[in-house]
Amino acid sequence: MNLGEKIKSGRKEINLTQQELADRLHVTRQALSRWENNLSYPNLDMLVDISKSLKVSLNELLIEEQDGMVKRISDDVRDRKKYLKYLIMIGVFLLIIIAWLCTLWYGRSNQISAIDQNNPFLKTEYGYALLPDKTPLKKQKVYITYNWDKKRKRKIHKQVTKMLKEPASIDAFVVKDAFGNGEWMPFYTGKYDKNQHYAVVAHKGAYVSNARTINKNEIPQTIRDIIGNHYMKYQRTTPDEPGVVMDRKTNIIQDD
Question: For the stretch 117-138, what's the b/e string if a residue is b when 16 or more beta carbons lie within 10 angstroms of its beta carbon?
Fold first, then answer.
């Protein structure tokens, strides 16, 4: 007795019509009819449901079954493993994409220049910044090597450590457009004089690729009118609202 005949026989033994058994198995009557007539085979999960509904074991259903049915079940198991493998691979890939996007979002939200530098969704923009009147300096340890003694006129090898004042990084508000939109960014400009205490800044998000000092007349008129003349340091809190942290990405308008 083949599988189709066993399903049909078992159905009749428990006095069920094709429609009643199909309803129990949540399939169409036509599908059940094809199984009973050996025109197609149920998959492994459906075989388990059929065995429960007919109250017979899987072994009883499959014993003496032709090789085609056994091969079909074997293929079904292999396909399930293959699909599960693909599903896991897709899941891991999606998790990597989500983690990457979250990293880019975190870097942009917190102005992390190393992340913004590698963010493919950001493009290089140009903004203008007002600098302090004098170049900010910081003491830096410098190693100087002497290879010639001028007094004795002979070769020497002497290394001296000195503390020299070198230009420090400037934290300035970079204006992007005529509406005063921009953000605070740290960057280096080198030494400059009071007539050139403005800078044009090339940046990608918070990552500054280049900064050059200019005079005010080189700034576009629409930005020049709002950038101001007096440098203002970044403050985490505002005087009016000391408990509120000031965002480094904001809008600023200064009075001349």
Answer: bebeebeeeebbbbbbeebeee
Helices and strands (H, E) in the chain, number of each type: 8, 8
How far CA 25 is from CA of 48, 72, 146, in Å, comes to 10, 20, 93
How many Å apart are CA 79 and CA 92, to the nearest integer?
20
CB 237 within 8 A of CB 245: yes
Dist CA 12 CA 25 (whole Å): 16
Whole-angstrom distance, CA of residue 176 vs CA of residue 180: 7
Question: What's CA 204's distance to the chain center, in Å?
Answer: 16
Partners of residue 187 on adjacent β-strands: 170
Angle at 84 between CA 78 and CA 88, to 5 degrees: 150
* Element of type H or E holding 156: strand 154-167
pLDDT band at 236 (very low <50, low <70, confident <90, very high): low
Tell how strand 154-167 and strand 198-204 pair up. unpaired
- pTM for the full predicted model: 0.59
User: What's the farthest any 2 CA atoms get from each other in the chain?
Assistant: 120
Closest CA to 157 of 145, 170, 171: 145
User: Could you report the per-residue pLDDT of 208-218, keeping only the tens digit for each?
Assistant: 999 999 999 99
